[in-house]
Amino acid sequence: MPLVSMNHFLPRAKQEGFAVGQFNVNNLEYFQAIIEAAKEERSPLIFGASEGAIRYIGLNNVVALAKVAADESGLPVALHLDHGSSFDVVMKCIRAGFSSVMFDGSHYSFEENIRLTKKVVEAAHAVGVSVEGELGTIGGVEDDLDVAEEDATLANPEEAIRFWEETRVDAVAIAVGTAHGMYKGEPKIRYDIIEKVASKIEAPIVLHGGSGVPDESIKKAISYGVGKINVNTENQVAQVQVIRELLDKNPDMIDPRKYLGPSREAIKEVVKGKMRLFGSSGKA
Ligand SMILES: [Zn+2]
């Protein structure tokens, strides 16, 4: 199956009350671990690639790896640009073969965010590519993004509704209290904001910074209208733990397959657990 846009499964996810995971890729092993998990779970899937990951892996490599995974699995797989910072970056990714993009205009003024996001939606929808927009500022650190806690601002529900009405994005990331990276304490998710916005717009809400959020909170957020959840940090933590232990125990180990292989299994297990938690298992 070729790569599909998120509209292949997100409308159904919102209707039926489940969420599809966006699993970010950092190297080859992520593609392998994530697609194997999706195959075993029969789950739709979103590969997330940040601008940093694209620089690291290479734009054409990212697209090729995602295409092979989609082809061989027969599953509905979207390749999604995570936090695209400009119209140019978005267009580059679409031209290279991405089936979905996020345009993050959250650091612009509200009106400017709408204007720029609209421009992206027009161009992307013309070629069947889905778009995620962002409102409010999600705190924490992820790749090129670094938002201090005091600069993180929650989304205003009225603005979020207007943002969707004017841009018609296919998914809306709104800042509701989660943060990128791993939590130290327990995040206070503003379910009331999710509910208010989700009940007024067709598109599902996207939860960024889902790592470290308790399972019950995730389920609750999905029940209020979250239809897409981004996961990256937890996979990285699982991966590095395995590698660290193996190299500590075996200082002579030099074959990367000996430590990357087992760490790939660890990523796969995390992804499978998320697919079950999000309710996307069996929905492919
Ligand atoms: Zn994010």
Can you give a write-up of this model?
InterPro entries: Aldolase_TIM, Class_II_FBP_aldolase, FBA_II, Fruc_bis_ald_class-2. Its EC number is 4.1.2.13. This is Class II fructose-1,6-bisphosphate aldolase. It holds the Pfam family F_bP_aldolase. Keywords: Lyase, Metal-binding, Zinc. With 284 residues, the chain is an alpha/beta fold. Helix content is 49%, strand content 18%. The protein has helices at 10-16, 28-41, 51-57, 59-73, 87-96, 110-126, 157-167, 191-198, 215-223, 233-249, 256-278, and strands at 20-24, 45-50, 77-84, 100-103, 130-135, 139-142, 145-147, 171-174, 179-180, 205-207, 226-231. The strands form two sheets. An eight-stranded parallel beta barrel has the order 1-2-3-4-5-8-10-11, surrounded by eleven helices. A three-stranded mixed β-sheet has the order 7-6-9, with no helix packed on it. Helix 2 (28-41) packs parallel to helix 4 (59-73), helix 7 runs parallel beside helix 8 and helix 10 (233-249) packs antiparallel against helix 11 (256-278). The termini are close together. 51% of the residues are buried. Zinc ion (ZN) binds next to loops. Zinc ion is lined by residues 83, 138, 142, 180, 208, 230.
What is the strand and helix layout of this fold?
Layout: H1 10-16, E1 20-24, H2 28-41, E2 45-50, H3 51-57, H4 59-73, E3 77-84, H5 87-96, E4 100-103, H6 110-126, E5 130-135, E6 139-142, E7 145-147, H7 157-167, E8 171-174, E9 179-180, H8 191-198, E10 205-207, H9 215-223, E11 226-231, H10 233-249, H11 256-278
Residues 83, 138, 142, 180, 208, 230 line the site of zinc ion.
EC number: 4.1.2.13
GO molecular function: fructose-bisphosphate aldolase activity
Keywords: Lyase, Metal-binding, Zinc
